[in-house]
Automatic annotation (TrEMBL):
Protein name: LemA family protein
Organism: Salipaludibacillus agaradhaerens (Bacillus agaradhaerens)
Domain of life assignment: Bacteria
SUPFAM superfamilies according to UniProt: LemA-like
High-level lineage: Bacteria, Bacillati, Bacillota, Bacilli, Bacillales
Family as reported in the entry's similarity comment: Belongs to the LemA family.
Keyword annotations from UniProtKB, A to Z: Coiled coil, Membrane, Transmembrane, Transmembrane helix
Length: 184
């Protein structure tokens, strides 16, 4: 009788320890996914904000450049010295306005905006890759623990099932098409 009680206690402890081990691994997978999900949402939010910011700055720069191009065309079309002088004076005035605008709004630097977007996209993608590796590492540990004996029997008894790895679909493995984002 005592031996039977000892055996039952040992079996119960064995089941409890394995159940708790599976639960801890399961919670680790959930936590790793929460981290990954946060980075995925950061990418969505950050990318949209960056694109809108750069688009606004770009629109202002393009408007100023179009004014200069228009004035340049006026210089080329001028047929007499008075028209040319007037056109050059307008161009000089517009160039001074552009310089003042850029000094007043240093964020209006076309190339810097695109470089900033590129750096931000790369940084976010690196964070996502690290979070994905972390998540997949936890999923791998969990899946291994419920796949090997005697874990597979205990996991089946407690209805633990394997978790799916987070793999990017083939179309998401390609580089982000920033040009398409600007053409929305």
């Amino acid at each position: 009788m005592v031996i039977l009680i000892i055996v039952l206690v040992v079996v119960a402890l064995f089941l409890i320890m394995n159940y708790n081990s599976f639960q801890k691994l399961n919670v680790n997978v959930d936590n790793a996914f929460a981290d990954l999900d946060a980075f995925l949402m950061k990418r969505v939010d950050q990318l949209d904000n960056l694109i809108q910011t750069a688009r606004q700055a770009t629109d202002k720069e393009i408007e100023a450049l179009e004014n200069v191009v228009g004035l340049r065309q006026g210089i080329l079309k001028a047929s007499n010295p008075d028209e040319k002088i007037k056109a050059h004076n307008q161009l000089t005035k517009e160039m001074q306005a552009i310089t003042v605008t850029i000094e007043r709004y240093p964020e209006l630097k076309f190339n810097e905006n695109y470089l900033h977007i590129q750096r931000s996209i790369n940084e976010i993608e690196e964070q996502i890759q690290a979070a994905r590796r972390n998540y997949n590492g936890h999923v791998g540990k969990f899946n291994k623990s419920i796949a090997v004996f005697p874990g597979n029997i205990i996991a089946g008894f407690f209805r633990f099932t394997s978790r799916e790895m987070f793999e990017a679909p083939p179309e998401k493995r390609e580089n982000v098409d920033v040009k398409a984002l600007f053409n929305r």
